[in-house]
Amino acid sequence: MTIDPVKSIPAFYAGQSILLTGATGFLGKTFIEKVLRSCPDVREIFLLMRPKKGLDLNERLEKMLKLPLYEKLCNEQPSAFEKLIPISGDIREKELGLSAADRQMLIERVTIIIHAAASVRFNDSLKCAIFANTRATRDICILAQSMKNLIDLVYVSTAYLNTNNPIIEEKVYPPVTNWRKMIEMAELLDEHTLNIFTAK
Q1: Angle CA(115)–CA(145)–CA(113) in degrees, nearest 5?
Q2: DSSP of 120-185, one letter per residue?
Q3: What is the residue-wise DSSP string for 133-150?
Q4: What is the pLDDT of residues 5-47, one digit of tens each?
C-alpha cells in the first residue's frame, strides 16, 4: 500500500496539540511555519520560550511572527497564529523552568512533543552545555512520561556529534560517559571545577 505523504502528514497532525522546544531557533521557526501552513487542522502548538532582551513572551512571539518567513502565512491564513501558545520556560533550568500550572496543562493537553531546543554554542561552559543539552532532554522525557495522551516524542539532535569519527554512520553510538553522572556533576560542582574538566 502506498501512502501519500501530502495527505498523511496533515491527517496525522489533525486535532493534535504539540509542545515545541527551540521555537525561536532556526528549525523551530520553520517547523511552526510549515505545520501552520500545511496542517490547517492542527489544534494548537505550545511554544516553550523565555523572556529575552527585555521582551516578554508575547512580545517576543509577536516580533518573531513579523519575519519574512511568516509573510505568506500571514497573508493567506492569519488566524493560524491563534494556535500558537507561548509557555514560559527555559531548557537551562531544572524541570524546564515550568510553573506547576503550565506543567499540568501540558500533561493534560499535549499529544506530540518536538524537542528541538539545544545549545550549539561551542564556547558554552560545560555546566550550561550539560543543562541545556543533556538535563533538558532528560526532563522532557520525564514530562513525556506524565502526559496522558502522548502519541509521539521527536528528539532533534545537533549535527555536531561523534566528531572524533572520520565517518559517521546512521546508527546509535554508545555514550562516551554516563549521562546521569554528568548531570549530577554539573549540578553539584562549581563553575571553576567544571572548567578544569572542560580543559581535559
Answers
A1: 25
A2: --TT--HHHHIIIIIIHHHHHHHHHHH-SS--EEEEPPPS---TTSSS--SSPPPPSS-HHHHHHH
A3: IIIHHHHHHHHHHH-SS-
A4: 666 899 999 999 999 999 999 999 999 999 999 999 999 999 9
